[in-house]
Amino acid sequence: MLSLNPIWAMPRPAKRVVSIVVDVIFIFVSFWTAFYSRMGSIQNYWFDSEYWYVLVSVTIVTLIAFANTGLYRAILRYLSLQAVVTIAFGAAISALSIVLFSYYFQIFLPRSVPVIYATFLVCLCGGARLLVRFLLSDFLVTGRVPVLIYGAGKAGRQLYNVVSQSDEYRVAAFIDDNRKMHKTTIQGVTVFRRKYLPRLIDKHNVEKVLLAMPSASRSERKSVIELLSDYPVEVMTIPNLSDIVNGELQIDQLKEVAIEDLLGRDQVAPNQALLEKNIKGKAVMVTGAGGSIGSELCRQIIKHQPRVLILFEASEYSLYRIDRELRQLTQTVELVPIMGNVQSQHRLEQTMSAYKVDTVYHAAAYKHVPMVEFNVAEGVQNNVLGTYRAACAAIEAGVSSFVLISTDKAVRPTNVMGTTKRLAELGLQALAKGYQTDHNTLFSMVRFGNVLGSSGSVIPLFKAQIAKGGPVTVTHKDIIRYFMTIPEAAQLVIQAGAMGKGGDVFVLDMGEPVRIAELAKNLIHLSGLEVKDIHNPDGDIEILYTGLRPGEKLFEELLIGDSVSKTSHDRIMTASEVSMEQDEYNQLLDDLLSAAQDYDQPKLRQLMLDAPTGFVPTDGIGDLVWAQANENKSQTN
Q1: 66, 91 contact by CB (below 8 A)
Q2: How many Å apart are CA 446 and CA 443, to the nearest integer?
Q3: Residue 252's pLDDT band (boundaries 50, 70, 90)?
Q4: What is the pLDDT of residues 586-619, one digit of tens each?
Q5: Is the pLDDT of residue 182 over 80?
Q6: What ranges make up the beta strands (E) of 317-425?
Q7: Does 456 score more than 90 pLDDT?
Q8: Contact criterion met (CB below 8 Å) for 483 and 263
Q9: Tens digit of pLDDT for each residue in 520-534?
Q10: Residue 1: is its pLDDT beyond 60?
Q11: Coil/strand/helix, residue 266
Q12: Which of 277, 409, 521, 553 is catalytic?
C-alpha cells in the first residue's frame, strides 16, 4: 500500500480532476460496451461522427448531473450507500440523455442500449469508488489500535462511525448480549455474544473495549464491567445519551469507566418537592462551601432557585474557586462569598442575621481520620465546638432549618474524627430538645459513608498510583467501605433535611459495601493492566497492603442501635439514637474546650471515652505535638 501514498496525499482539487477524467473514460467505455453487447459489433457505428456527437453531449450532461448531485464533493474514505444512489440517479439521467440526443441527431439506437449503458455506468463508477474506499480503509487501518465495541445498538453504530473516521482505532468486532444479533454484521463488522470475548481479544490483540451502553442501568453496566475486568483490556465508555442523540459524539470524548458504574446501584429519582422545600425562594447558607460535599451542595442548591446563597468558607482559595464556578452556572441567584471560621459564633450570627438566612447546611468539618488523629485539639474545637456555635448562631438568627452533614464514622467510633462528629450530633440533639419552647430552629443530621471523588478518597489515589506504574496501596485486604456519588449524596442531604421534625438522625442507604482490595483490582484491570502477585509475577501493578491507619476500622456502620424507621424516600431512613440533656451537654462542651485550649491530651481522651459516644479507640493518643513533647521529656529525664 505504500506505493499509493502519493495518491492519498494529493490535494482535493486534484483528486476531483482525477475523478472527472476517470468518469469520462467510464462513460465512453459504458457507451460502446452497451452497443457491442446489443449488436455484437461496433464497427458500423465507431466511424459515424453522429454517434460521437451523441457521446460527447451525453458525457457533458452526465458530468453536470454527477456534479450537481454532490458526487465530486464526497470523500471516498466515508463513502456510503448514498453515493451509490447518487451514481444511479446520474446514470439514469445519462441514459435518458442518450435517447434524447439520438433522436436529435437521428441515429439508430436499439431500445435496450440505454438500459445496458446505465447498468455498466453504475457498475464502473460505483465499483471503482468502492474499490478505492476499500483500499483506502485498508491503508488507513495500518497501525491503528484494534478495539471491540460492547453494544451493537444505535449508540454502538454511531460509535463505529466515529471510530472508523479516526486514525487511532479500528473496530475488530461488536459484542452484544442480544442473541438475535449474533453473527449479524454492521457495516461489515460482525456482532458476537459475550462468550466469544476471550477468543476475539486473543485473535485481534485487542487492547481496548469501548462501552456503548448509555441508556443501560448501573446494575447492567456493572455486570458488563465485572465481566471485562477479567481480561487485560482497557475499558472506555462514551458520554451521556444526549450527546449521542444530538450527534455530538467525538472520538476524544471517550473516557474511563465511571467508578459509580462499579457500584452497580441505580440512583433513585429525587423528590422535587423535598428538594425545593427549604431552598426555593429562600436564603440558604452552606458552611464549608468550598469542600467536596459543600461545593456539590451549592451546585445542587442553585438549581432550585434560592433567593440568595451564602458561601461560608475558611479557605480563601476554596471560596474563590467555588464562587467563580457558581457564577458561571447561574446569573439569577445572588451569591454571597463570606470568609469566616465556624468557631466564631459572632461572625456566623452576623452573617445569618444580615441575610435573613432560612436554611443552613453545615458541611464545615475536619474529616480525614489520620489528620484529626494527629491533631486532636484542633479536631475537637472545629468539629464539636464549631458545630455547636453554628447551631447556636442559627437559633439567635431565627434560622428555620439547620442540617448537619455527619458520617458513618460517628457510629461506635474507633477514631477521634468519628468521635467528634458523634459529639456534634449529640449537641444538635440536645438543642433540639428545646424546640417549641426556647427556639424555632429545626435541627437534623444526615449520616452517610464515603463519597466518590471527594478529597482524600481512595479512587483518585488509586488512579494516580496506577498512572505511575504502582504499587497501589491498600491498608488491609479485608477492609470494606460504603460508597456514594457526591451528587447523589448532596441531593439526599437536601431531601432528608426537608423531612426533619427536630433532632432527627437521618441515615442514607449506601447500598452494598465495597471491598477496597477488589476495587483496586478492578481499577487495574479496567486500565488494561494486570495485577502483579505471587500467582502472576509478570503482572504490571502490585497491590501493597500497608496496614490499618491510626483509628481506622475494617468495617463501617451507619446505625448505633436497631431502632431504624423508613421515610417517604426509598434511600433515606431515620434512626433513634442516644441523646443528652442540654445542661449535661453544655458541661461536657466546657470541659472539652478547656482541655483542648490547655492542650491536655489525656483529659481530652478521657472526656471522649466518658461521653455517650461509644468511643473505643484502637490506638493510643496520636497527637503528633503531644507525642513529640513526651519524647523530649523522656530524653531529658
Answers
A1: no
A2: 10
A3: very low
A4: 999 999 999 999 999 999 999 999 999 889 888 8
A5: yes
A6: 334-339, 359-362, 401-407
A7: no
A8: yes
A9: 887 777 676 778 888
A10: no
A11: coil
A12: 409
What pLDDT is stored for residue 251 in this prediction? 41
Residues 6 or more apart in contact with residue 603 via CB below 8 angstroms: 591, 595
Nearest to 253 by CA among 214, 216, 217: 214
Does residue 272 contact residue 280 with C-beta atoms inside 8 Å?
no
When pLDDT is averaged across residues 551-559 and rounded to a whole number, the result is 61
Task: Quick: pLDDT tens for 310-328.
Answer: 999 999 999 999 999 999 9
| Mean pLDDT in residue range 227-254 | 59
Which helix (DSSP H) or strand (DSSP E) does residue 174 occupy? strand 169-175
User: What does the alpha-carbon distance between residue 552 and residue 356 come to, in Å, rounded to a whole number?
Assistant: 41
SS3 481: strand
Collapsing DSSP to helix, strand or coil, 255 comes out as strand
Ramachandran class of 91: left when φ > 0, alpha when ψ lies in -120 to 50, beta otherwise: alpha
Q: What are phi and psi of 167, to 5 degrees?
A: -100, 10
Cell readout for 459 is: 479512587
Please name the amino acid found at residue 255: K
- Cite the DSSP H helix spans in 399-481: 416-432, 458-467
SS (H, E, C) 551-606: CCCCCCCCCCCCCEEECCCCCEEEECCCCCCHHHHHHHHHHHHHHHHHCCHHHHHH
DSSP state of 622: -
Q: Which three cell numbers stand for residue 292?
A: 467536596
Please report, for residues 25, 73, 88, 114, the alpha-carbon distance to residue 92 in angstroms, rounded to integers and kept in the order given. Answer: 18, 20, 6, 9
Omega into 487 within 30° of 0, i.e. cis? no
Pairing of strands 572-575, 483-485: unpaired
HSE at residue 574, side-chain half, CA atoms within 13 A, is 17
Number of H helices, E strands in the chain: 25, 23
pTM above 0.70, yes or no: no
The residue assigned the cell 446494575 is 219
Backbone φ, ψ for residue 533 (5° rounding): -150, -170
Residues 71 and 86 sit within 8 Å (Cβ to Cβ): yes
CA angle 571, 576, 581 (to 5 degrees): 140
Q: Is 282 a catalytic residue?
A: no
Q: What is the pLDDT of residue 263?
A: 60
C-alpha dihedral, 537 to 538 to 539 to 541, nearest 10°: 80
What digits encode the pLDDT tens for the residues 72-99?
665 555 555 566 777 788 788 888 888 8
